[in-house]
Amino acid sequence: MDELPVLNRLCKDLYESVDPQVRHQAELNLAELSESPECLQRCMLLLARGDYPYGPMVASTTLMKLLGGKTSITSSQKLELAKYLLEMLGQGAPQFPAYLVTSLCQLFARLTKQEWTYLIVQENSAEDSKNEYPFREPVDSLIKTVNMDNLEESMLAVQLLTLLVADMNSASGMDSVNQHRKNLSQFRDDFLYEIFSVSLNLLSNNVDKNLNDRQITLMHAVLNLNLQCLLFDYIGSLTDETSEDNCNVQIPTAWRASFTDGKIVQLMFKLLEKLPQESSEKVMTIIAQLASIRRTLFNGTERQAYVQKLVEGVVSVIMNPEKLSDQAAFHEFCRLIARLKTNYQLCELIAVPCYSHMLRLLAEFTVQSLRMMEFSANSTYFLMTFWQRMVTSVPYVRNNDEHLLNIYCPEIMTSFVESRLQHVESIVREGAENPLDDQGSTLQIMEHLSIICRCEYEKTCKLLTQHFDQNANIWMNGSDNKIITGLCRDLRGVAIASTTKAIFQILFEWMYPDVFTIMQFSVEKWPGCADVVTPILRLLSEMVQNRQQRLKFEMSSCSAVLLFKETSKIVSIYGERLLQLPDVSKDRVYKERYKNIGVIFLILKNALIGAYVPFGVFRLYGDSCLQDALTTFVKLFMSIPPDDFHSYTKIAQNHYNLLEHVVQDNMPFVTNLSVDVFCALLRSIHSGMSSADAIVITSACSSLDTILNYLYRRLTRSTPPTNKVGMDPEGDNILIAVKQHPEILAKMLQAVITLMMFGEVKCQWSLSRPLLGLILIQEDVYTNMKRELTSQQTYDRQADFDMLFTQLMSNVEMNVSVKNKDTFTQNLTRFRRDIAGVLKGQSMQSTNPVNQDMQHQD
Question: Fewest CB atoms within 10 Å of the CB: 133, 227, 307, 422?
Answer without folding.
Answer: 422
